[in-house]
């Protein structure tokens, strides 16, 4: 690799910021979902369609668009997809109807491919001894984007209205769209000889051949569904009687997820020592205990903090250990196996989105607590069964 083509430290941090901005877009809705529902005059059950279609469109986008990274320049694709995100956000920002807002959100999900292309781009432009460091930096950018989106959206919506959240998001995305052509220097040779559809369909063949990735993906689908369901339901619960808090309080609680930045690298090192499957099972047990505490402790704001800390400490670890089960396989399979895993994860996110708002509309907070506990019990059972693969 030519020294001139390597990323400078400034470029590395700038790409991490870009990763934060492009990832944040899917998470602004979490603390403000009640405000958006009220504005458009839709029920709590119906508003769940917005994040649900966003997550399902993201799954479809990952399946259909991510394989293009094996054929076309990562730089070129990233710029195109980020521009698509920016246009989609503009539709959401200007939408006068619920249908228009939902269409914009769905398109936004479909184009949210950049967080998965940026690491591939960066990996080709850093020295081998810095690969882990730069990959971790981009991952930290993603986590930071989620945290700032949820905490910031709640505060802004409470004081200035939810629409300003999307005006700011659109402005940030426009800035990133304009900056990327200069940030992502150097072109890549495009592999036009690689056929696109056979590459996409090969994902299904690999999934059949490596059945454990389907199991790991299903476990992560449940894990991600719980994450989405919890935060959407919390936003509805905390801003309604008898709690009657503002969206800023929802954002403050969302900041608790910062503990995962500290815990996840340590859990990864621990999983290296004890084994990914065993570690995932143990983390699943702890997560089940944390989710079960939401019912007895959820009557007060401070009571909610305890299970939230537990869940945010171990939840990302379930994802990390799930990825470890197949990322040790041969390098030429990892991208496509990761595609299977991520598609299943976002299908779970879509189901969690629509399921949580529907359950909350019908059964309230108690129904959500029962749903989360049952889902976590199923996840724990699957994680125990998966330990058989490691024997």
From TrEMBL:
It comes from the Bacteria. Residues 11-391 form the Major facilitator superfamily (MFS) profile domain. Gene3D superfamilies: MFS general substrate transporter like domains. Pfam families: MFS_1. The keyword Amino-acid biosynthesis does not apply. The keyword Hydrolase does not apply. Keywords: Membrane, Transmembrane, Transmembrane helix. InterPro entries: MFS, MFS_dom, MFS_trans_sf. The chain crosses the membrane at residues 12-33, 45-66, 78-99, 105-122, 134-152, 164-181, 213-237, 249-267, 279-295, 301-318, 339-359, 365-386. This is MFS transporter.
